[in-house]
Specification:
By secondary structure, this protein is an all-alpha fold. 83% of the residues lie in helices and 0% in strands.
């Protein structure tokens, strides 16, 4: 007995596969958000300076507060990616909303990379002379690179979607003229 997915693929009806894959990817995005939030809440408690501090002192540290503020573009980008997958699941991938969503993800990635570079420069200039900031600066370089790769990919996808929308519009005009 064949399963529903295989029969859908054979019959050319892959909407259930598309829907399940977009729902799966949306779940992955939600999971990434929860893991990032858990790390942001838990990490300050495990940091070396935090061993002798109370909770208020830990979470009112300016560097921790900057990290929370700098994470806002990351969470906005996750939300926009979730929305984009929703558009794809509704067969609205070639829509103006999808292009706007990709553009906002691109801007979030650019802002995030700028904030990470600012953090790296601050640590490089003002770090304690007894500390070695090489590991933190390496993390800044890697995360900045990842953010810029995401921004570049979003720019490419935005251009592809815009070209697809233009082609779709031209085809619809030709179809209307041929009637």
């Amino acid at each position: 007995m064949e399963t529903k997915i295989f029969s859908d693929v054979r019959s050319g009806n892959n909407k259930s596969i598309k829907k399940s894959s977009t729902v799966f990817l949306q779940g992955v995005i939600v999971l990434i958000g929860f893991v990032a939030l858990a790390i942001m809440i838990r990490f300050p408690l495990t940091e070396g300076r935090a061993t002798n501090l109370d909770l208020f002192s830990i979470y009112s540290d300016p560097f921790i507060l900057y990290g929370y503020a700098a994470s806002i573009p990351f969470f906005i980008a996750l939300y926009k990616a979730f929305k984009l997958l929703g558009y794809i699941g509704q067969n609205k991938a070639f829509s103006l909303n999808s292009v706007k969503t990709l553009k906002s993800i691109k801007y979030c990635a650019i802002v995030l990379s700028i904030l990470i570079v600012m953090t790296g420069l601050y640590i490089r200039i003002f770090h304690n002379k007894d500390d070695d900031p090489a590991g933190f600066l390496a993390m800044c370089i890697v995360t900045t690179f990842v953010s810029l790769v995401v921004a570049t990919a979003m720019a490419v996808f935005e251009k592809i979607l815009q070209n697809g929308m233009d082609i779709k519009s031209e085809n619809e005009q030709l179809y209307e003229q041929s009637k």
